[in-house]
Design a protein that fits this description.
With 155 residues, this protein is an alpha+beta fold. It has one domain. Helix content is 15%, strand content 35%. β8 and β9 form a beta hairpin. The termini are close together.
Length: 155
């Protein structure tokens, strides 16, 4: 069975990098300079931002439907993320080494299953959830901090 992870469209975030820190703060956004090769996963590229990169820490609505699972949480967006990544039948690098909470949703936006996966086990967990024909997409969240990581859609 095929699946696809896609990064977020960078368009809504591009203009924010031209704002000064005070303008960003008015919108609840924090600019950071990456100081570690791990810990700043970009939601556009789905890879770790690298030391010296500029990122924005901002709130993102990952589930926007009016149902009970509407979700918002903090994410990082890297200034170097110029195009949304696409990973077909492959776990993106920023997800592969993390403990994840996988949440499976049906076409009506209802959660029908969920599980935790250890680093390196995301694909097995994802495929187990996608074995359920009712599942159309699976949201991956970092299990420790709860941040939205990416969405996988059945192909």
């Amino acid at each position: 069975m095929s699946y696809c992870f896609e990064g977020l469209d960078p368009g809504p975030y591009r203009h924010l990098f031209s704002f000064d820190d005070a303008e960003l703060a008015q919108q609840g956004i924090v600019r950071m300079t990456v100081d570690s090769p791990r810990g700043f996963p970009c939601r556009v590229t789905l890879v770790e931002a690298q030391p010296g990169d500029n990122v924005l820490l901002l709130n993102h609505a990952s589930r926007t439907d009016a149902g009970p699972y509407r979700t918002t949480h903090a994410i990082f967006v890297s200034e170097s993320g110029s195009a949304a990544a696409r990973y077909l039948d492959e776990i993106p690098p920023a997800l592969a080494t993390r403990q994840l909470s996988l949440r499976a949703f049906d076409a009506a936006g209802m959660m029908v299953a969920a599980m935790l996966t250890e680093p390196g086990a995301a694909e097995d967990g994802l495929l187990t959830l996608l074995d359920n024909p009712a599942v159309v997409e699976v949201d991956a969240h970092n299990a420790v901090r709860g941040c939205f990581a990416a969405r996988a859609r059945r192909i």
